[in-house]
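Lab meeting notes turned into a lecture example. A postdoc, R.K., suggested we walk through two folding results consecutively so the class can see how the record format repeats. The first protein's sequence and C-alpha cells come next.
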Amino acid sequence: MFTKILIANRGEIACRVIKTARKMGIATVAVYSDADRDAVHVEMADEAVHIGPSPATQSYLVPEKIIAACKATGAEAVHPGYGFLSERASFCEALEKEGIVFIGPKPRAIRAMGDKIESKKFANAAKVSTVPGWLGVIENADHAEKIAGEIGYPVMIKASAGGGGKGMRIAWSRAEVRDGFDRARSEAKSSFGDDRVFIEKFVVDPRHIEIQVLADAHGNALYLGERECSIQRRNQKVVEEAPSPFLDAKTRKAMGEQSVALARAVDYQSAGTVEFIVDNEKNFYFLEMNTRLQVEHPVTELVTGIDLVEQMIRIAAGEKLAIKQSDVKLNGWAVESRLYAEDPYRNFLPSIGRLTRYRPPEEGQFGDIVIRNDTGVTEGSEISMFYDPMVAKLCTWAPTRLAAIDAMSEALDSFVVDGIAHNIPFLAALMQHPRWRDGRLSTGFIAEEYPDGFAPIVPDNEEKAVLASIATAVELLRRDRLDRLGGRLAPHSGALKRDWVVKIGEEYLSASVLEGMISIPMELDLSIDGGKALTVVSDWRPGDLIWRGTVGDRRIAAQIRPVLNGFGIAWKGMSVTARAMLPRTAELERLMPEKVAPDTSKMLLCPMPGLVVSIAVAEGQEVKAGETLAVVEAMKMENVLRAERDLTVSKLNAKPGDSLAVDAVIMEFA
C-alpha cells in the first residue's frame, strides 16, 4: 500500500480523497493555485505545493507541475479526482514514466472510453446499443447542418473531450445547429483544449441513468447499482439519487452486466461509470463511459456502504477486489443536491464572492436518517470566477425514497450560506415538487417545469399561517429582548399584547395570541386570520439563523434573516419578507408610498461577473428580437445575450476581453 499520495485537484473532491486517505493511514499532498492559497484542501492535507497562477490552464492542467510536486514531496501515487487531468491518458503515461502510480484506469482504457467519439466507435464494435449519430470529424457548420438533417431533428451537439455540460447544445432546427456548433466548439476549446464535436440523435424525454462499476487488475469486475441523474439544467446535473425510481430489477441487471462487459473489454482497472439514456419503455442506450470518479459517487456509497475512493486506491496498489457481485446489496435510498454559486432568481447566472456565512447542517446519523456534506469551503472562503461554481454536495440517506427527500428538504432549510447568490431556494422548492416526489423524471424536467425560470414558491393559506406564526413568535421575542435592555425610556413591557397584524409579502394577516407567554423555550397558541388554534413551540433565540420548532403538527426548520422593519423567512423554497406589527402600525404602514424601480429597459446589463468574449453588434445597428448582442463567459460557460425586442444600438460600453461586474452596462439602446 502507498505511504503518500498527491491529489491533483482542488475543492470538495480533494477534501473527499484526503478523508479516505487519512482513514487508510496514507499521508496526503495537496496542490494549489494562487486563488486557492487559503483553500480548505490545502489546510487538510499533510503537505501542500503551490503550482502556479489562478487559471487552471496555468496550474491544475499542467502535468509537469503535478509531476514536479510528486518528486518534491515523495508522493508515490496521484489521485486525479474528477475534471482537470482525470481523463487525460498522456498524463497517466507521463506519471508511469516517472514511476508514479495513477490512481485510475490505464491509458488504453482512458483513450478507448474517455473520448466520446472513440468510445462510441468502440461500443459499436463491442455490440453495445448506442444512440444513432455521426462519429466522424465534423469539418464546419455546413457539414454539421448536413449531418443533422440526415440524422433527423432534434440532435445533440457534444464536445468529444467534454464533461460537466460544457461544449454541449441541443438543436431543434438548421439555424440552431449552426449556432450550437460554433458555441460547442468554442466552449470545448476553452475548457478542454480540444474543439472536436460530434452529433447524435437526441432522445426526447429521456432519463439519464448511470451504472457504477469497479474492476481490478486481476480480471474481477462488478457493478454497484445505478444512479438516477435526470434532474439537469443546461446538461449539468443538479440532483442525483440512488437507486433510480424507474428501473426494475431486470433492467438494472441488464444495464449492469452490459457495463461490466464493456469494462472488461477495455481491461478497465478502477472505479468507472457507464452512462445511459433510457426511454419511457426502459430501452437503454450507451452514452459514454467516464473513466474517473463521478461527482455524484456519494449516493452510491450511501446505499452500498462501499467507499469508492478506498477501492480506487486499493486497486491502484495492485490489490484484488475483496467483494463479489453477490455481496453488493442496495440498502435504502440516497439523494444528493449540488449546491452551486448561482442565482436561481436570475436564470441561474453564476455568482462569485466571499462566504460571509457558511454553516451546513450537522453531519452524521440521526435515527433513520444520515446526513453527509461533501465540501471544499468554509466560512470566509472565496468563490472564484476561475473554477466550477459547485460549493458543496449535500446528501441524505433514509430507508425509503420519500423519507430521504424529506430529510433533504429539512437539511436544505438548515443550510446557511451568505455572501453569494446560491441555488438552495431552488433545491428546496424542487424537494416539494409533486413530479419529483412521484419520480416522474426526464432530463427536460427543469426546462419543462420552470419554462420561465425559477421564482419563489407562493405559499398557500396553510403555509401563510405557518409563516405568520413564526413571524409573530420572532417579533414577540425581539420586543421582549429590547424591553430588557437597560436605559430604555419607553419599553414595550406591560401586559402581553394579544392582537397583531403580520404582513407576508404584500398581504396583511391578523394574528391573535390565545394562550401562552413570552419565554425561551416558547409555547404559544395562535390564531391566524381567525383560523383554528396553532400551537407554536420553539427554543429559538434572537440572533439564531435557524428557527426550529413546530407549528401545529408540522416540524419546521426555517431560516431567519433580519431585514429593514421585518424578517426574511426562507422555508421549503418559499422566500418571504414578514413583518409583525401592532394594528395601528399596520394601519399607517398601508399608507406608505411604493418605491418604483429604476428603468433599465434601454440597457443591456451584464447578468453575471464575467469576461466579454464577443460583441455581435455595432453602434447604430438595428437588431431584431432574438438576435445575439454579446457573449459573456463565466465559470467556463459561454452565455449568449440576445435582444428581447427589436431595437437600435446607440452606445457600446464594453469590448471583447473586458472583465465586467454584475449589472455593468454592456450597451445602450435608442
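The second example is placed directly after the first for contrast:
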Amino acid sequence: MSGRGGHARATLIAVAVVLAWLVIGGVAGPYSGRLGEVATNDNAAFLPTDAEATRAQDLAGEFVDRQTIPALVVYERTSGITDADRQRASADVARFAQVPGVVNPLPPPIPSEDGQALQVVVPVDDAEGEEIGSVVERLRDIAGGDRDGLTVDVAGPAGLLADLIEVFSAIDGPLLLVTLVVVLVILLIVYRSPVLWVFPLLAAGMSYALASVFVYLLADADVLKLNGQAQGILTVLVFGAGTDYALLLIARYREELHRHDRPFHAMRTAWKGAAPAIIASGGTVIVSLLCLLLSSLNSNRALGPVAAIGIAATLLVMLTFLPALLLLGGRWAFWPRRPRADQADPQTEHGIWGRIAGFVARHARPVWLSTAVVLAILTLGLTQLGATTLGQSDLFTQRTDSVDGQEVIARHYPAGTGSPATIFATEQTARQVAQVAQNVPGVAAVRPVSATQQSGPPDGNAPPKVVDGRVQLDATLADPPDSDGAERTIRELRVAVHQVPGADAVVGGFTAINVDTSDAARRDQNVIIPVVLVVIAVILALLLRALLAPVLLIATVLLSFAATLGLCALLFRHAFDFPGVDASFPLFAFVFLVALGIDYNIFLMSRVREESVKRGTRAGVLAGLAVTGGVITSAGIVLAATFSALAVLPLVVLVELGTAVAVGVLIDTIIVRSLLVPALAYDIGPRIWWPGRLSRANGEREARHAR
C-alpha cells in the first residue's frame, strides 16, 4: 500500500475501525456502572468447598428454615441503663420485626451483667444478598442516633457486611472519577498538549467498558464470582495498564513520524515495533493473573479471570482502536510540538536519558552493585511485616457503626456474643463434645440449639434439635470474633472436639471462616508464587530468545518485590499505624508487582535486543535505555498513581495493596529498570543473550571493535 491511494484506503480503514469501536462502546458503556449489581461480598461464599467452615455452613442450613446472618443492635449508657432505655429498646424490637428481610421471632433485649448495655440480636435472611445493606440501614434508621447519653450502634456480621457494601459502592463513582482525573493530569504533564491526552484516555475508557460487559455477563451467569475488591482492582488496572500501553505506542509513533513522511507508514512501523512488547507484557500479566485459578479460595480464583479479562480487553483496544485514532489525528495530534519528518535520531529527543545512559556506561559495575545493595537493605523491613487476619476494627481507615458497636459489645459482653462458633456432632456424643468445648480456654459458654428457639441465644433447658442424627452446639467466645484470640480459640476448639471418639465433629461460624481463609491464603502463596515465576521465565525466554537474561530479570524483580514489601512494612507500621496486613496481601502484592514490574523490563529489554541486533549489545543497551527511559518512567508514574487511587476506598487491605503496587512500580521504574538492569546488562555484555545466536554474533563484533 503506497501513494495517495494507499493513504486514502488506510484512512478509510481507520475511520471504519473507530466507528465500529464507538458502536461497541455505546453498547458496552452502561455495563461499567452495573457491575455492583452482580458483585457479592460474603466471605463465606469464597471459601474452599472442602474447608471445615464450609461443611459447617452446609450443616447449619439443615437446622434452620432459612440461613441468617445476625445484626447486633447494642445500646450503651455508661451511667447505667434506665427504664426508659429498656422501653426504647423493646419498642425498637417490635419495629425491627416489621423490616422486610428480618427473620422472626426476635428475642427480647439482652442486658449486660454490669447493667450498662442492652443487646438485640436481629437475624437477617442470608438470601437478601447485597440487599442486607439496605436491611441494616433500615435497622439503623429505626434505632436512631445517640440520645441523652445513650449510644446506639448496629454491629455484628450483618453490620460489618453493610459497611463493606457501602465502601464498595464508591467504586462506580468516586474511585472511577479519581482514576480518570489522575490519568488526565499525568497525561497533560507528559504530553504538554491540549489534544494528545484525549486519545489514550478515550482508549482506556473503551477498554474499561469492554471489560465491564464481559465481566458483568459472566458474573450474572454465575461463571465467575465478582466482589468489591476485584471490581476496584479492575478499574485501576485497566486504566493504569491501558495508559502504559498507550504511552509506549505513542512514543514509538512519535519516533517514526521523524522518519516517515506519511503518518500511515509511521504508524505501521511503530505498530510492528511496539506491538510485540505490548503483547508480551499484557500476555505476561494475563497468564500471571490466571495462575490465581490455582487458588483454593474462590475470591482469588475470581480476581484472576476478572483482572485478566481487563488486560485482554485493554490489549485489544490499544492495538486497534488507539492506532486508528492516532492515524486519523496525524501530526496535528501532537500540537504544539508536532514531529517533523527530519530523519532525526530518536536519541536526540531524549537528552536526560542519554546522559543517564552515558553515566551507566562509565560506571556500570558500581551502579548495579550499589543499587542491589540499597534494595537488599530495604528488604530488612520484612521483619516488620506480620501477615494476619485484620480485626473488624482494623478493616477500615475510618470509624464505622459496626466497629463502634463491636467495641461496645466487647466492653460489656463476652465479645463473641451474637456470633458464636457452631459445633456439629452426633447426638450420642453431643454432651461429651459440649463438655470438652467448654473446657477450651477462650470459650465462654456452650449451649445446644433447641427445637423451639432458633433465633437469639439458645435456651439451655430446652431439648436440642436433632437433624439426621446430629446436634448443633453454639459456643460463645470470650474474644471478639475477628480477633487473633478468637482464631486461636477456634484452632484449639477444633483439636479438642475432633478427638472425641465417634463425634465426627465439625466447627464453623464467622471466626472459623476467617481461620480457613487465612490457612488457604498461606497455601496459595506456596503453590502460586513458584508457578508465576516459571510462567514469566518461559515468556521472557521466548521473547528475548535467551536464558541468562530472563533469569537475571526475574532475580531483579524478586529483589525489587522484597524491597517493596520491606519498605511498605515500615510505612504501614510507622507512618500509617496499621496493625498488620491481611493474609492474602503477600500473594496479591506478588502477582501484581511481579507481573507489572516485569512489564517495564520487557519494554526495555525488547528494545535493547532490537537495538543490539543493529548496534551491538553494549551500544544497544545504551540506545534502548535512552529511547525508552522517558516513556517507561511516565508509564510507571501513571500506574503508580492509578493504584494510589485505591486510597479513596476507606478499606485497609486496598489501601495497603494500592500503596504496595505504587511503591513497587516506582522502585521498578526508577531504580531497577533505569539503573540496575541496564548497568547489569552493560557489564555482562553479549553474554546476556546466552545461549542465543545474538550472544555469539555480538560477542564477535565487540571483540573485533576491542582489537
